[in-house]
Each structure stands twice: as structure tokens, then as C-alpha cells.
Design brief:
The chain is mostly helical and about 325 residues long. Helices cover about 70% and strands about 0% of the residues.
Length: about 325
């Protein structure tokens, strides 16, 4: 058993193992606490299913404690090992649902929710128009030599600038959630600036990135995944309401906190993604032997041609491939 605990301790030192196992541990510990307390108006507290428990506590802890104390030592260790296995297996299973949960939080909803999606996007567009007008007013006041922005106006201007920079300007490209708009903007900005479509170019660019850049991007993406994973566990935590009413507000508060955490992590990831194109896009041109743009005015056109070539190929005699004498 000591060797097992030592091995598990070595694994838990890794940050990814901690981010995987800690939410699972808290989920099952909360479920055990809900079962043992079983207090308040909660379903399934009484032996007959569906009958509400009385307002008085019907704690099951003394009975469980006596039952565990009466078990032989090997059985106690077996229960401990089974609990560890349950935590590990459930963490692995939930990990498979993190990508679908992220898409749900981004706003990729089922078709039968299209009416709600359109309504939310219309409200977002109207709010963005108001924010754009207000930002313009503050910008004109800032440029006016005879006017001085107050501290509150500067804070408002910074918040408006952040909102406008992290949301697509076109209503057709908007997502119904703040998280979705931040990630969508990060995907679109390389195309708007350099003509490089992220969906097509990103896998190729990733292969030529230095390890330092990959490490920073990996850390940022891991933070986003951890927030989404914890959000998923928080939502699932509400299932313990069948034994304790407090599981619902606790789970919903945790889900709200994790969503704000995911929004902040997505902003960091999006900025790093844009910075990667800003700094390392020349490596993509070099590795593909594609002639780079000569100036900013023609870069978008050259980037669009490179994207088309990578996506569909080409049999055109132009442009001529070049060989770089040294890496840009």
C-alpha cells in the first residue's frame, strides 16, 4: 500500500494529473457528504424513493462509521482502493466530454435552439452598436485638446475597447456566448490581418513553431480545458440534490465561476494565438517555400493565395517556389 501511495503521489505532482483528479475527488466527496447529511427537503432521503425528507437532519454518518469500523482491515483497504479507482476512472470518462462541453459553451447549440441563438445574437449586435458609439464618443473626447477624460471614463473606454476587440464585427460571424465570441475572434483575426485562415493554416504552423511557443500555447489551452472540465463537474454536482438541497446552489455557483474562468482563459489563449501568427508566420512561408509578401499592402492577398493552395492545391505556374538561405 505504501508503494501504491508513493506512486500515486508521484503522479499527482504533475499539473495535468491534479487538474484531472481533483474535480473528480471533490465531486465524489461532495456526493458522500450529501448522502451522509441528507438534511432538508431533498428527494430520496427516506427509504421509500420519491418521498421528501423532513426538515430535521437524518444523518447517516454514525451508522456508516460503525459499519466501516466493523470491517476487517483488508476490506477497508479494498474500499479505499475502490474509491481511488472510481475517482480515476470517472476523471478519464469526463475528459472525453470536455471538447463537446467547450463547443456547447462556445454557442454551437442544437438546431432546435436556432431561434434562441438568433435572438441572443440580435441582442448582442444591438449592444455592440451602442458600445461602438460610446467608444467613439470617448475617443473623440480623448483626442480633443480642450477635454480631459475622467478616471471613470478611461476605465469605461478600456472595457469597451476590450469588448469590441474580442467580438466579431459582423453579426453573421457572432456566437451567442461571450466565450464563443472570444475564440471566434481569435480564429478570424489572422485572416483579417494576414489573409491566413486559421482552420487551414494552424496545423501547418504548429509543426514549425519552436518549443517555447508550443509550451506557452499548451499552458494556455490547458488552462481553458481545466476551466471547462471543472464547469462540467460543477453541473454534474447538482445531481446530489436528491440527498441534499444545497447541491443545486453550490453546483450552479461553481458552474458560473468556472464559466468566467473559461472566458478569462480563452482571452489569454486567443491573444497568444494571434501573437503566434504575428511572430512566426514567416516560418510558415519559409517551410512551404512560398514567396513572402514584400510589404503590408500585399500581405493579405499573398496570405489568401497561400491558404487556397494549402486547402485545395494548385496547378498554376505562379508563384515560383523559393529556397531560403536562412530561416526568417
Amino acid at each position: 500500500m505504501a508503494d501504491l501511495l508513493e506512486a500515486l503521489g508521484g503522479q499527482l505532482i504533475e499539473r495535468r494529473a491534479i487538474s484531472l483528479l481533483v474535480p473528480s475527488l471533490l465531486f465524489w466527496a461532495g456526493g458522500l457528504g450529501a448522502y451522509l447529511s441528507c438534511s432538508g427537503w431533498a428527494l430520496l432521503c427516506s427509504p421509500r424513493l420519491g418521498v421528501l425528507c423532513s426538515a430535521e437532519s437524518c444523518s447517516r454518518w454514525p451508522a456508516l462509521r460503525d459499519w466501516l469500523a466493523g470491517l476487517p482491515t483488508p476490506w477497508q483497504w479494498s474500499l479505499l482502493g475502490g474509491g481511488v479507482l472510481l475517482i480515476f476512472v470517472s476523471a478519464v470518462v469526463i475528459e472525453r466530454f470536455v471538447p463537446p462541453a467547450l463547443r456547447l459553451l462556445e454557442g454551437y447549440w442544437p438546431r432546435w435552439l436556432n431561434f434562441l441563438q438568433r435572438r441572443v445574437i440580435r441582442r448582442q449586435t444591438a449592444r455592440a452598436d451602442r458600445e461602438r458609439r460610446r467608444f467613439g464618443e470617448l475617443r473623440r473626447k480623448e483626442r480633443n485638446p480642450s477635454a480631459v477624460l475622467t478616471r471613470e471614463e478611461r476605465r469605461e473606454m478600456a472595457a469597451l475597447d476590450f469588448n469590441l476587440m474580442h467580438a466579431p464585427s459582423s453579426p453573421q460571424l457572432r456566437m451567442p456566448t461571450e466565450l464563443g465570441n472570444i475564440l471566434r475572434t481569435a480564429e478570424l483575426r489572422p485572416r483579417d490581418k494576414y489573409g491566413l485562415n486559421s482552420i487551414v493554416c494552424w496545423p501547418r504552423l504548429w509543426l514549425v513553431l519552436p518549443e517555447s511557443a508550443k509550451g506557452e500555447l499548451g499552458e494556455a489551452r490547458a488552462g481553458l480545458d481545466t476551466a471547462v472540465r471543472t464547469w462540467l463537474w460543477s453541473v454534474l454536482f447538482t445531481v446530489w440534490a436528491m440527498w441534499a438541497w444545497w447541491a443545486v446552489p453550490l453546483g450552479l455557483l461553481g458552474a458560473l465561476f468556472c464559466y468566467r474562468w473559461a472566458v478569462a482563459a480563452a482571452a489569454v489563449y486567443g491573444e497568444l494565438l494571434e501573437a503566434t501568427y504575428d511572430v512566426h508566420r514567416w516560418s510558415l512561408y519559409a517551410e512551404l517555400h512560398w514567396p513572402p509578401p514584400a510589404n503590408p499592402a500585399e500581405e493579405k492577398k499573398v496570405g489568401e493565395a497561400l491558404t487556397s493552395y494549402l486547402y485545395r492545391g494548385s496547378d498554376s505556374p505562379t508563384p515560383d517556389f523559393i529556397t531560403y538561405t536562412e530561416q526568417p
